[in-house]
Specification:
Largest interface: A-B, 49 and 50 residues
Strand order of the largest sheet of chain A: 2-1-3-4-5-11
Helix content of chain A: 40-55%
CATH topology of the domain at 167-288 in chain A: Rossmann fold
Distance between the termini of chain A: 50 Å
CATH superfamily of the domain at 167-288 in chain A: Response regulator
Oligomer: homodimer
CATH architecture of the domain at 167-288 in chain A: 3-Layer(aba) Sandwich
Strand content of chain A: 15-25%
Number of helices of chain A: 13
Order of helices and strands of chain A: HHHHEHEHEHEEHEHEHEHEEHEEH
CATH class of the domain at 167-288 in chain A: Alpha Beta
Chain lengths: 329, 329
DNA sequence: CTGTTAGCGCGTTCAA
DNA sequence: TTGAACGCGCTAACAG
């Protein structure tokens, strides 16, 4: 491994001079710049980021804390969008990110997690899909040891900002369109997990709509499970004109239940995952741009890390109708 | 940030002493060990891995080079399994991994990629799903600058070892069972991408079977595309008794084509992705344990990095029948 | 504009 | 068994 010293010797300048051209300092003559560049080139010199980081003391890595769901890969698609959006932006911003699955932290106490992160020089964390009963990360946020960005969860403070899709409005919008399209009155709403923040927001959305349109609204928690949604639909589907689900996966479950008991009900989903295109039926849903959300999250964390104040933001959503033909063409 | 020096002062010992208890050196009295541990604890000292790495010069990171397919999330599931398997094992082995998408390297020359990796202190790389015409990584392998592990590609050398599923045998096995189950004679085989290594192996598998059982085998390249497979099936499906596809996604395309032209043909796939469970039909396929494959890949790279010789290995596969009910129950 | 010097936080000899 | 001292590769004052 060729070091900065060898480059300096080769170009017969001082080490610091090499460092300066490396880091684009002003006040270097074109002549010496050229000499140094030539030396770097000929020696195939590659700066050692480790040493640079240690020396400059401004070395911050950002942990991306994501979920891996082995049950269904519907979630994988979302996670991958999150990851690639974040990494893309991180490269642009020149910060280093490390991917961490919740499962890797399982069983660790709050202190252990903090130490683990610190030992890795992690100063910023982006938390995707935090649940209400995640004590560990709640406390980590509270202790303000890191700069934090939470995606789709309501935390804002000096060191924490939030990036989220307006789930309430999105749920309101998609359900409204479904209600109007088919002139429905009796709605079966299959909510998500009780411990999820987005669940509450989406619930608020549907409730606002119900009030506004004077709908007959029945609510059941489907826990984001396809099977659960299926069972709920089997039980209560008949008495509804429309089934609104808080996730696409549950919408699939609801649809299939309708088929099984031989009733037809419009169903609408939430997320806009590609899987929907494979079910072979048509469904109204909300598409979120997870990639863009994640990019925004990285921008936020960069702001925070650079000492500026975060400015939490709300991302766009849009309504889409998915069906088979949309996907394979 | 509390440093080793503060710990040393607090415990009134020398810095080197602290370092020694940290790294479990012998020849330290229990007394001082205890003193130091107490200091570490009370000061909440966290060793700085950056500095440790720089100092000890034995710092190796491993790059996981994966694909992100925005077209279909079928691939996402596989990639996530790869990633989590690798990270899990990496944590156990105490090596640091960084995730890199091919798309992040797009447009970079071979030298640029090498420099980029080197600047990141990446000394080992694990390549998932390399294609035959990926000049950049072919040359990187050839130049032996890193320690390498390739998954499902045929490269073995001093610094490179390979971890793979026996694709030939797997394709042979699954097709054989399908052929026997329905006593088929005329096979339509929809192969993968021409530039993929696994494509060739799978092709060999089906060809061996055809020879052995004296089957009438027609081969077409579906490029791992659902639409392509669909079109091939529309054209040639009628003259076959059985359709064997080199991926589950293509199998879905083939199935749907059969329905469209109102013929019934058994179809068999490859990979065993969860998506299959959502198609609502039954299909024979091959399940690979991507998680285990990736764990093995990390073990290999650790061997290589520690200077030992790699021992490339072949992973198990198994035949499965997927359908809707398997998934939601 | 360039070079000298002093660290960054830690591992590792080598004396004591 | 312990500690002083040096160096890892680099950045950043400061002096010249």
């Amino acid at each position: 491994m060729v070091t900065i010293k060898e480059v300096a010797d080769y170009a017969s300048v001082a080490i610091s001079t090499v460092s300066k051209v490396l880091n684009n300092y002003p006040n270097i003559s074109e002549d010496t710049k050229e000499k140094v560049r030539k030396a770097i080139d000929e020696l195939h010199y590659v700066p050692n980021t480790i040493a640079a980081a240690l020396s400059s003391k401004r070395f911050a890595r950002v942990a991306l804390i994501v979920n891996l769901n082995t049950q269904t890969q519907a979630i994988d698609e979302i996670t991958m969008q999150y990851l690639s959006g974040a990494m893309n932006k991180a490269m642009e911003k020149n910060v280093e990110v490390v991917t961490i699955f919740y499962s890797m932290l399982e069983g660790m106490t709050e202190d252990e997690v903090i130490r683990y992160f610190q030992s890795q020089s992690i100063f910023g964390i982006v938390i995707y899909g935090m649940s209400k009963d995640d004590k560990v990360f709640h406390n980590i946020l509270k202790r303000e040891v890191f700069k934090n960005v939470v995606v789709d969860a309501p935390f804002i403070s000096e060191n924490t900002s939030s990036v989220w899709v307006d789930n309430k409005k999105a749920q309101y919008d998609v359900a409204k369109r479904a209600v109007l399209d088919d002139n429905c009155k009796r709605i079966l709403y299959i909510a998500g997990k009780r411990n999820g923040y987005v669940t509450d927001y989406r619930l608020e959305g549907i409730q606002e709509l119900a009030e506004e349109k004077e709908l007959d609204l029945k609510i059941h928690y489907g826990e984001f499970s396809e099977l659960e949604a299926r069972n709920i639909t089997l039980k209560y589907g008949k008495e509804a004109d429309l089934i609104v689900c808080a996730s696409d996966l549950m919408a699939i479950g609801a649809m299939n239940a309708c088929i099984d008991i031989d009733i037809f009900r419009p169903v609408c989903g939430f997320d806009g995952i590609t899987l929907m295109g494979y079910v072979g039926k048509q469904m109204l849903t909300v598409r979120q741009d997870f990639y863009a959300v994640s990019q925004a999250a990285i921008e936020e964390i960069c702001l925070l890390l650079s000492g500026e104040k975060g400015r939490s933001r709300i991302m766009e959503h849009k309504l889409v109708k998915l069906y088979y033909k949309d996907i394979i063409c």
